Amino acid sequence: MRPLPSCICSIIALAFVALMSADPAEARVFDPETFTLDNGMQVVVITNRRAPIVTHMVWYKVGAADESPGESGNAHFLEHLLFKGTKTLGPGEFSEIIARNGGQENAFTSQDYTAYFQTVARDRLEIVMRYEADRMVNLVLTDDVVLPERDVILEERRSRVDNSPGAQLGETMNAAAYLNHPYRLPVIGWEHEIRALNTQTALAFYRKWYAPNNAVLIVAGDVSSDEVRPLAEKYYGKVAARPVPERRRIEEPPQNAARRVTLESAQVRQPSLTIRFLAPSVSSAVHAQTYPLQVLQEIMGGGATSRLYRSLVVEQGLATSAGAGYDSSGLDSGDFSFYASPRPGIEIEQVEQALRAEITRLLDSGVTEEEVATARQRLRASAIYARDSLGTAPNIFGRALTTGQSVEDVEAWPARIEAVTAAQIDAAARAVLRDVQSVTGLLLPKPTS
Amino acid sequence: MILRTFLSALVLVFGVVLPAQAIEVQRVVSPGGIEAWLVEDHSNPVISFDLSFRGGSALNPQGKEGLANMVAGLIDEGAGDLDSQAFQGVLDDRSISLRFTASQDSFGGELFTLSENRALAFKLLRLALTQPRFDSEPVERIRAQISAGLARSAENPDSIAGRTLRSLFFPDHPYGRPGEGTLDSVAAITVADMRGFVARRFARDTLVVGVVGDIAPEDLASLLDETFLDLPATAQTTAVAETDPQGDGALVVVERDVPQSVVAFGHAGIKRDDRDYYAAYVVNYILGGGGFSSRLYEEVREKRGLAYSVYSYLNPLDRSALVLGGVATQNGRVATSLDLIRQEWRRMAEEGPSESELENAKTFLTGSFPLRFSSSSRISGMLVGMQLQRLGIDYLDRRNSLIEAVTLEDARRAAKRLYDPDKLTVVIVGRPDGIVSNREMPKS
User: Fold this and answer.
1) Are A174 and A215 members of one domain?
2) Between chains, do B311 and A6 touch, taking CB under 8 Å as contact?
3) Closest CA to B437 of B252, B160, B168, B169
4) Interval B191-208: pLDDT, tens
5) What is the pTM of this model?
6) ipTM of the assembly?
């Protein structure tokens, strides 16, 4: 087994798979306690007594989509630089303190949020709170630590993107999926723009966005709200609130033409296909369709008995994999996607035809009440599963609270899913699955001449 | 190196709460004599059940590489009266997760279920192990999926590096063969091969079981009998030969047109039951193991920005042992990165860690141990691992004292035994500037 490479950050590109659900009668999923400090910092505490440990996270309501034009990658760059010291701690010193206390840490950046976290024994919580609060306001950056870190990020980009045809296609599909909205830009940044980032761009971003009133503190594990509150007041409460700009990204216009992008590479031996439709997210202005779309995703792509797997992989034998995904977590919008990969000897065109035929069948005939009932039942059990792992709840709340949702939205999710009808799903599918707001991506082997 | 001495007031290095206080492992033996290790936990109505049979991909017959992996992919694709869609349908409808995996030295299964569905879940597990159908539709479908997976990784730089390194280490030993098989060997696997595998390899004497969750010991005992008593008492397996890794000093460049070279390296390691294992484990944490403060991380990433990831780790196998590492850097900087890694490898061999490095490592490794207990499936996985490695049922209580007991002398001895930069076998996938192979590309 190969351990995860040591890395300061991972870029969250994964869809928010809403994992939790429960009998609507037992209304609470995680049953957190929440309060707000005088400076506006929201605090969420989720007690889980499985082990004598706590996960401590600070989520900032800022991400790559908030960068200035020409500075793609700046949010992620700053995330790396938050490990470079403060007025009282040298570069890497916070990490050393965490390690000496048996803690683990990391950070990640997405389009909409940036988060830092540590997991420690419960009696070490105060130590990580002290220093996380410190770097919220006291960051010190100099070129001698900033410039090598920029090289690290260029290597990170090579690892994640430049060495991977699939990731390069994904980057191009993103740029094609949005005509105007900044979600079209990669979180890690374009290489030439990363090269232009520097100490000043990072500090400017830090001063503009990092403030307690623009952050959410989440503590989960063997701890209660009564224990967290005095510590939160002592450390985070001391950081003064500052004006932070409202997050208003430039808007996406109506889309009028389907797009198609193809990447051929000698590195690809197994072709694959993705069709991605622009869709509302839970936080979009118009979001009534998001819960029906979540159930639709389960019907089309949830496991070995889903429509797509059964049809393309089992019955027709055309594909080795087929499914659907719905990313509903974006602050401004989301996407609903379908994917498939052909069996050896089958042409990708044939798989694409079969996949589009399933989409057409869905639009023509809709879903059945029975399919809806089964999907809801499947989703129900996952609430209990979601409570099992210490890390699940804090990540769900962090994501929700930095993308326009409330604690109540998370806790009410099972009831909202339970209320979804077949008619709502059919209407949502017809509104979203329109070719003119889609991009199709093909990953193909380079033909040998 | 930035390893400062901190005020002890900040760093309360002792008194970390040990997991043993929170976790009690019970030995459950069924009336039929089947043993399981159980951590009872009724706080959430779920059961995480892990099993493993000793003996894995290394036992695959020559020319049938990938057999264990293919069986793992197929025994949950129809069993007993249930065909593939019916079997998977029950799993989906009841949200039962059942999956099997093959590694070099074992064949594992993981069952995760709501406790209210446990009778059904264990019935499906029993059917999968005792009456798999191997109908032709799922057999060809899974064969195609495995082949597609092999095709996907065929030109992936990380996969190429790993495969090539393994072939160099073990040219004439099963450990050198790909566990997931090759396109040819996967095509050659028959239903008879798979039926033979199930009949010979799933047996009570090679079985270990770890369970966490909402189940009482007496209920578990009867489920163990219902699930496993139909299995033969003893497995029919051959022994895998003890072997030392070959390829000392080999350097192989696999030319590929990528902007970043992927480098994998290593040499002989230290086995799990070696008296120096814990000392080696601590020393490797200091060299290239942990978080954001290992020597390799500091020299290669922090100071010079040469790579995003650089690491080393111990890889003990049942019949051999390796210490492995990796780095990925742009083609122009491979030589510099490798020089630095060799230099650190040598410095650790010659000098060992400093006293403060050793103390810091022990503090981290003991203090972070409870962090592994973050979900029931992680714990049930550990219970199985403890049994496979024969660590004893009290291992969770003893583990931190084994780390604490490592002295500076132990650490230096282990470092000297473990690391030898001249023996490093290195594989580079990419177009590294100014580096040429000193060996032929191994056949794989």
Assistant:
1) yes
2) yes
3) B252
4) 999 999 999 999 999 999
5) 0.92
6) 0.89
